[in-house]
Amino acid sequence: MGSELGSLVATMLEAEPWVGALEGVDVDPPRRRLRKAVFHRIEPYHRQQVVDVVGRFNPHVLIHVAVWEPDARVTTAQARTFTTDAATSFLGAAAECPALEHIVVRSAACIYGRARGSLSRPDESAPPNPTTEFGRMAARLEAVANDVGRRTGVTIGAVRLAPVLGPHVPSPLGRLLRVPVVPFSAPADPPFAVVRDSDAASALVAAARVGLAEPVNVVGSGAITAWQAILRGRRLPLPLVGPEWGLARRLSHILGAPVPEHVVELLHRGRLVDGTRVQELLGFTPAHSTPEVIDRLYEWPSVIRVPSSLPWPGQPQIDRLDPETAEVAS
Amino acid sequence: MSTVADVIHIDTRGGAAASFDRALRAVTRPVSVVWPRPTVDEWGRDAQFIEALSPVTHLRWDVSVGGEHHLSGGAALIVVNTRRFALTPVSTALALSDVLHRPVRFVGRPDTVPFGPFLRRMGGLLARPEEIAGALRAGDLVVLGAQGTLNPRQAGVVDHTLVAAALSEKVPVHVAATLSTVISRQARVEVAAALRSRKKRRGPLAEVELAEHAQRRLQDLLDEMGGTRTGVPGLGWLGEG
């Protein structure tokens, strides 16, 4: 509930008529104003505290969004540790709740991997074969959730999200595409697809509402290549062919846009998934196409100017705020 | 009558910038593949890339297509005979796409650079049943080449594991006989009506028999079409290979 996606999910759940009480646990406080939800700030590795809070609440539905994308907010090693700790604590605690009926986990399209000869556009029936750390994290999370489901008899729904982009979502892909000079794979330049944060949140809420009991891919329609995205953003494309990628990654890291291996894989091998079953399974279709999300990515301001609550001498008049960015005051 | 309100039209971008964009696009039309438009579809086929390549492909192939009315608006698998090293599935897919004005994919791209991404942009799919099934499920036309032969008038073996995708997705299977030569641009694609099997099979025999049926029908079509000749006295046989 502390991440942007978690806060968005909580906001949407508050508006759902079928949701009674709502509680959330995270290491960071919520990013949005929540009116009904109760928030508990607990580190995932404080397992007993998590078990006490979740056990006391005794939920019917658990939405597990605690997945740290490598190099989004923390390093790959930290992301792996935090995601594992959170999965053990939250899913383990939920398994002890007698009222629990359903679990929804946030997974990733990286779970299919992009090994040589793997499907260009895998659907949900394709076996997971992760080839990056983020994909392996998603596979481990789904495995833990499925194990909980098998032991307790609750249904498990995995929402496999394409790379999530949004105005406040920390994303290594979004960050990389917004730097002035963007490297891309000249010999391959494969297509990829993304999903908007609001669509991802809607999918998680819909999965909880319908009691999704299987994996589902959630991705914006259409596709785009890195070259096309860079040109649409009026950035300078930097074509790379192979060995210099190591240097480019290090330079990019120093300049504040680390490029984790799942983003390198996306730029070299592409990432498309078949999201045609989302309507059938969730009764919902992502509202934003991939090109639209990429266009919006370049429209989001780098610095969000929010007027102070008290006027100060010489304060410029800010007439209008972008409704997407107006809620965040930091 | 009094005016209730004036409607003010505000451009999303400045007029000067929009004019500059239009002028730039007009000037760079011959190299329009570099325009920042998202032209790849959900499988990686790039319509703009194909359009940019069309002068080159037309320089190599001048394909006349017949029997395209047999293809309905929905998904279908089209099995074609393949002359070795002739890129028959690629030329057939491009010719059908031109005639039908819809994307047509072909099976048999590699997954290594630079040819894999290049052929993917042209509509290539990996030779995997799941990949073909996915494209058919999406309502696409997919061209599948039979095993390559040296003799252009001989239909090669059809891979039953790949044909199985059409059965699993319940889409029609057509055969298309193709005739082309090494030295000539002229080529012919003749699409036949959907195959109809007399026997209903529930097990794996269904795809094996369908693949054999496709090969037989393809051979019949090739026999009906006759060979191609170069028209050069004494060198007419060159058209055969």
From TrEMBL, chain A:
Residue span, NAD-dependent epimerase/dehydratase domain: 24-168
InterPro entries named in the record: Epimerase_deHydtase, NAD(P)-bd_dom_sf
Protein name: Unannotated protein
UniProtKB/TrEMBL annotation, chain B:
Protein name as catalogued: Unannotated protein
Organism: freshwater metagenome
